Amino acid sequence: MIQDTNDNASNDQQLNPATHPSNSLDWLSRLIAFDTVSRHSNLALIHDVRAYCEQLGLTVDLTFNEAKTKANLFVTVPAGENADQINNGLVLSGHTDVVPVDGQDWTSEPFTATIRGDKLYGRGACDMKGFIACALTILPQAVQLSNSGQLRRPLHLALSFDEEVGCLGAPLILADLKARGITPDYCIVGEPTNMAMVVAHKGIAVYRCRVHGKSAHSSLIGQGVNAISYASKLVGYVDTLAEELSTRDDNDALFTVPYSTLSVGTIHGGTATNIVPNLCEFTFDYRNLPHMTQDDILAPIQAKVAELNAQMQARAPETGIELMQEESVPAMTDNNSAELQSLIAALTGDDERHKVAYATEGGQFTNAGIPTIICGPGSIEQAHKADEYVELIEIKRCDGFLQKLLDSCTAK
Ligand SMILES: [Zn+2]
């Protein structure tokens, strides 16, 4: 950690690499120093955390990407009379990867935690190494309670890779848990919510649509099939569906935008004004309310694609429309989390429920039947930006929250 103060004496807080930190701020500084931008390996961080867990006597489970360059880490502090109970339990979940800093104008080095005033700056400070730091800090106490037989509910820590590029890591953790017959009772995803309780989020599906027409001189349009014209018919249809979504009577007022949305984001096509274009490509995204599925909206779009394909191919058989899904993250539902919500409300003294439009791994956990909420330090407003920071008070609040949560795991 670098302290930006006038007092040089406070600048020599070098961490000893042989030992692990014992408080959340030192842990956060240590985690930020690992450049875990999604396109890089996260193995150095994972092996550091693994060494820490193994020193605590815990058994660590790693699951890897195909190239073995990235890993998820799952570790359990067991509970029960004989301290061998690893089923059920509470999962603390966080992603280890961070978004790039390319092209961003940072005041201090992004991969060196720097405290200025009441904030700690660094890539991942709020999204979401802050929560992971707090979770790692409380682990030794959980182990102590486990060893003395006082831990009644197992505590799990799940650290994933590649969340920022489409939540690619968490499904491997969930598949591994299923294979091992472990069914956690609850999960808390520590994305930045200013420690408020987020009980649901929308899903996101991103589509790319490639319209293949047929070129001709614009004076001879009868010989061509205009890719831009057909793309625009489909764009118009997507907009019509978007309007219909906004007026449905099953919308949810807890979301800032209370309905599912469809939005065209990019379009490219054509080479010259006097040429009938043979290619046009556009992308759109669909953000569905948790009670709606992504198929709800895909089915009518696919029907429209089939209709336009038939029209195009009647004129030139080699033409047509390709529709590809590029990304899909399921919505997080609050259907099965009432008990967890009550527990969190009781611990925090705040029973306000929030719903958000950004997607997390929470949807994958609820899809796997694990009741989940999102609650973590820092604000989503600071995520992904230059000079990303977390307020020190937020880390303190998260420490307090996890302490209460751990206490609840020891209650009879
Ligand atoms: Zn995040």
Automatic annotation (TrEMBL):
> SUPFAM superfamilies of this UniProt entry?
Bacterial exopeptidase dimerisation domain, Zn-dependent exopeptidases
The record's CDD domains line, in alphabetical order, gives: M20_ArgE (cd03894)
Per the UniProt record, one Pfam family is Peptidase_M20
Stretches the record annotates as Disordered: 1-21
Which domain of life, per UniProt? Answer: Bacteria
Domain Peptidase M20 dimerisation residue range list: 199-311
Please give the start and end residues of each transmembrane region: none
Q: Which InterPro entries match?
A: AcOrn-deacetyl (IPR010169), Bact_exopeptidase_dim_dom (IPR036264), Peptidase_M20 (IPR002933), Peptidase_M20_dimer (IPR011650), Peptidase_M20A (IPR050072)
Q: Which UniProt keywords apply?
A: Cobalt, Hydrolase, Metal-binding
Supply the PANTHER family for this chain: ACETYLORNITHINE DEACETYLASE (PTHR43808), N-ACETYL-L-CITRULLINE DEACETYLASE (PTHR43808:SF31)
Question: Under which name does UniProt file this protein?
Answer: Acetylornithine deacetylase
Naturally occurring in which organism (per UniProt): Psychrobacter pocilloporae
